[in-house]
Amino acid sequence: MASIRREMNVEADATQIWDAVRDVGALHQRLVKSFVVDCRLDGDDARIVKFANGMEARELIVDLDDAERRIVWSATGGRLTHHNASLQVFDEGGGRSRVVWLADLLPNALAPAIAGMIDDGMRAMKATLEAA
Hints:
By secondary structure, the chain is α+β, with helices and mostly antiparallel strands. It has a single domain (2-21, 59-131), classed as START domain (Alpha-D-Glucose-1,6-Bisphosphate, Chain A, domain 4, 2-Layer Sandwich), CATH 3.30.530.20. The protein has three helices and seven strands. A seven-stranded antiparallel β-sheet has the order 1-7-6-5-4-3-2. A hairpin with a 5-residue loop joins strand 5 (70-76) and strand 6. The chain is globular, with a radius of gyration of 14 Å. The mean pLDDT is 96.
């Protein structure tokens, strides 16, 4: 199973970042502008995400932990046979935060493409959050 880990520092308060992260239906407006172009809720525990590259995924929200500032989701459909990811926000003090994105997926051959998407998402997230 391929595992991808990315982390970055963000010049924004962890509480503000978490507020945007936990707003699961507003990715395209509050968290990753230009990386996600549309997001709509699908029932109480899922969202349909459309990416700028045209790809669309249904993401099941597995856990939303306010105390740990951590969200976990699983993508279904497409060529992935397994996908589980998490994003966690850490307060670094002084209005700075650290964001960690982890993803585990199968088949392994898709890891480079998914890693590239995560890198694009991290850049969009940093730009969106620091501009807020």
